[in-house]
Amino acid sequence: MLLADRSALIHGAGGAIGGAVARAMAREGAQVFLAGRTLARLEAVSADIRAAGGRAETAQVDALDARAVDRHADAVAQQAGGIDIALNAIGVTHVQGRPFAELALADYEFPIHVYTRSNFITAQAVARHMAKKGSGVILTLSTPGARLAGPGYMGNGVSSAAVEAMSRHLAGELGAQGIRVVCIRPHAIPEAAAAGSHSDETFRPQAQREGLTVARMLEGAAGGTLLQRLPTLDQVARTAVFLASDHAGAITGTVANLSCGFLVD
């Protein structure tokens, strides 16, 4: 097993990506600690993991509440003997597809505030414990918006670019303490949208403006990639497992491009 005897703390574990990663890490032997705002969703993921023979604990934690995140990280580290892996996979519904001239300042600022604040808080909480062990992996999430220069995605693009910049900076600052930091950048995931996730709520207004369903809009997005398809939840989860494992021990300070060739590095 790639993650045997590792502890993994996942914020946003009740969401589509967070849940998929939690299940995959548990299958590879990790003890997973699921954190999020909606306890019912966390418990559903935990039930799946336990039914498959894995180990999972849940806690209702707001990733924007620094004190709550710190207390939870301390409790996880005490129970597990440390924290080996951390992922911030929280998601919020935010405005996309609205031209700059029509974009309210509050709608622009919202995703930037949520994603930069939460990633700062969650990374700082686990880094303290990882530094004590001299090892650890912090995973973050962004979107192709970080590299796009088209209309309608100002808040998304700036927030994603900020998370990628934060990840690079953290890798530089924490590397000497044995901590690796890698950002995962998937394109839109049809399964996540179909499951009624935040991505579905975020994509729906844009799809409606184009007279399409979200599914049909994503079909069009798939046609814009080199592989003529979009990533799956399983591919994102397996990538996260690999990056958290010793097989990726030389990888830090970079972005794993899971855009199916929508972006070419």
Give an overview of the whole structure.
This protein has helices at residues 16-27, 39-51, 66-80, 105-133, 154-174, 190-194, 198-209, 214-222, 233-244; strands spanning 7-11, 31-36, 55-60, 85-88, 136-141, 179-186, 254-258. The protein is of the alpha/beta class and 265 residues long. The mean pLDDT is 93. The chain has a seven-stranded parallel β-sheet, with helices on both faces. It contains nine helices and seven strands, in the order βαβαβαβαβαβααααβ. The two termini are 31 Å apart. It has one domain (7-186, 231-257): NAD(P)-binding Rossmann-like Domain (Rossmann fold, 3-Layer(aba) Sandwich). Strand 1, helix 1 (16-27) and strand 2 form a beta-alpha-beta unit.
The helix content, as a percent range, equals 40-55%
Number of helices: 9
Enter the CATH topology name. Rossmann fold
Rg: 18 Å
Q: Stretches where pLDDT falls below 50 for ≥5 residues?
A: none
- Domain count: the total is 1
Label the overall shape.
globular
Structural class: alpha/beta
Amount of beta strand: 15-25%
Features:
9 helices; alpha/beta; Rossmann fold; single chain; 265 residues; 7-stranded parallel β-sheet; globular
Quick recap:
This protein has helices at 16-27, 39-51, 66-80, 105-133, 154-174, 190-194, 198-209, 214-222, 233-244; strands spanning 7-11, 31-36, 55-60, 85-88, 136-141, 179-186, 254-258.
Which helices and strands appear, and what pairs or packs with what?
Elements: E1 7-11, H1 16-27, E2 31-36, H2 39-51, E3 55-60, H3 66-80, E4 85-88, H4 105-133, E5 136-141, H5 154-174, E6 179-186, H6 190-194, H7 198-209, H8 214-222, H9 233-244, E7 254-258
Parallel strand pairs: 1-2, 1-4, 2-3, 4-5, 5-6, 6-7
Helix pairs in contact: 1-2, 1-9, 3-4, 4-5
